[in-house]
Amino acid sequence: MALGVTHVELLPVNAFNGQWNWGYDGVLWYAVHESYGGPAAYQRFVDAAHAAGLAVVQDVVYNHLGPSGNHLPEFGPYLRDAERNTWGSSIDLDQPEVRAHIIENALMWLDDYHVDALRLDAVHALKDSSEKHLLHELADRVDALSAHVGRPLTLIAESDLNDPTLILPREVGGYGLTAQWSDDWHHAVHVALTGETVGYYADFAAPDALEKVWTRGFFHDGTYSSFRGREHGSPIPETVPAWRLVTFAQDHDQIGNRATGDRLSQSLSLDRLAVAAVLTMTAPGTPMLFQGEEWGASTPWQFFTSHPEPALGEATAKGRIAEFARMGWDESVVPDPQDPETFRRSKLDWSEASAGDHARLLDLYRALARLRGERPELTDPSFTSLGAELVGGEGTDAAHRAFRLRRGAVEILVNLTEEDISFAAPPGSRVLLATGLAVHDEGGAIALPSDSAVVLGPAQR
For 164-185, how does the pLDDT look when each residue is reduced to its tens digit (9 = 90+)? Predict the structure, then answer.
């Protein structure tokens, strides 16, 4: 709570076949996985979170069923066998009973378990040709339940579409979901921090990538995506509040779907991790942290499974290796998802948080959380109050650039170049927070050392 966190998000808790798993191989959507303690234990967890002042967000998966222990199709036409997505046969949303099965499940988590929000996994894989899209219908029903129980209930989409329809109000033709994750934000920040430009990161090496996601939300808003080989996305209307985008520098997918499950802390200096903290916590969207990010956890987060069927386990491991080939990663370092040590390595070492550089980084996140709460500019949802400018490193690689970012009267200056850079400071501004030794001279300029950031703003009245 001292970190300023308001919500805790869980990966899927539905039942899967095996002992441990990320949860996306669920086959019994209405059951809480046994090793988590079953339904009563989950209700106690939610109640404890609420008692501590935390809301609970739960990930739910309605785009596929897991490959092991899946007997649901024996009870009805739940799947389209002739149509597949990345994870298996598509769910048949043309069947009214199947749609009801999904919607009633979502309502169960919100009503029976008192969960506050659902994160809807990979909604781009929901193939629905109905006049009223499943997401629209689900949002209608959740809003009705919210009115009945007298507490806010939230739907958050994970989507690869870059389509603002998901978060536009239903009155203007949108689906009316509360928010959606922004992978574009992640990719732009990741490239700026690491210089990594393989695979889907390639487009985000563009000099204006960070500027664009800061001021307009989506980088691909109708532009050509080299990874997809086509134009992709649509612009977000400036009337949409910026908090509808969940923004993050790390998450379970972007770490766990790397060859070795390495976090930023395993490749970046403490100074660069501090800059990542500033970018994340001053972002126009709703900031999200991945477990341990706030202290620069050194433990990896790797993809792990425990499929009982040896053939399925082997196929999963081979599939992971093939997936990484497109990103140009070394196949020989990919851990076996079925190896119990892969699971054990992914557990946090909580003792790290109180020592050395880990503790210093945690203190910075706490300071940033306080600053975000103190300065209304850092929670202003208007896209029209935002500004961004590349001020150094135009002709160098993507990991060595400098930026001036604006949120109303507050400015965030970032120097990721290899040299000190002098920024002109707005008249009357003062340093609200600095990650390095920022020198504010009498002439109104700020000298910012390499790999550092500073937050400037006028004194509050």
Answer: 999 999 999 999 999 999 999 9
